[in-house]
# Entry
Amino acid sequence: MTTRAKQFISADQLLEHWQGHRNLTRRVIEVFPDKELFEFSVQGMRPFSTMVVELISIAGPALKGIVEQQITEFSEEVFQPKTKEEILARWDAETEVINHYFNQISEEKFQETFNLFGQYEFPVYQNILYFIDNEIHHRAQAYTYLRSLGIVPPFFWERF
Amino acid sequence: MTTRAKQFISADQLLEHWQGHRNLTRRVIEVFPDKELFEFSVQGMRPFSTMVVELISIAGPALKGIVEQQITEFSEEVFQPKTKEEILARWDAETEVINHYFNQISEEKFQETFNLFGQYEFPVYQNILYFIDNEIHHRAQAYTYLRSLGIVPPFFWERF
# Structure
């Protein structure tokens, strides 16, 4: 029996927290008018659809790489959606991919360093927190886009 | 010895993660022109200074309430800064307040329900994740404000 550092949260709780955020992001995608999802942005920034493609290109592929110990280059080129429906369908498919791979990561593995996409060499738990933070960050930019468009975004605290 | 759920992160790691985010938020406050910090906003939204006062009114007071088992109403009225320097000084003071109280929360306590500000009855770990998420959320809105103003915000990944 080794002594273990004071726990903040369990893996199950983190996954539930993350999927709650993903539910909210899904609502934000849904509330965008189709045209603005692909075209609207603020000076020098990307449309929200492009940010969502980034999010989709990170979470599932990164977890797969961590579990399979495969260092693959980051790529957004694989998925080029033309409609909101395509994005939402892919979002939902990724929900299962995330659950599948996340649950295979052991407690010890969360603490090990992984060279994500051959570029980001950090402990696995930091990489995963980064995925979630990055999602919150881009989604909040989308909140501002929606406000600029005169559309009321979903409540930030509505997750399930 | 009780069996414990698979750990995602320790309390120390979460605190470091949070303070890293707070460092980045401090940089975002710094990069705002004084006038725009207090006056600029996008349709129906608040200036970033007001959001920062909200963040300052949550973290420290909430942790104090959790540790001292005191349910106090939420209040933003106590702190009404007039300058960026006042905000930054208070931000730095809160860094110590957060460290002080966070470190007194036990592993068991993180899992207990607390009625935050007499309004938000959730496990303590969920309340704390909410503080961090809420900070990322409002800071990202400030990123969009900065871009609208033609100002390049700090790198999202620069934390220490």
Summary: Chain B touches chain A at residues 1, 4-14, 17, 21, 42-45, 106-107, 110, 125-126, 129-130, 133-134, 136-141, 143-145, 147-148, 150, 156-157 (CB under 8 Å).
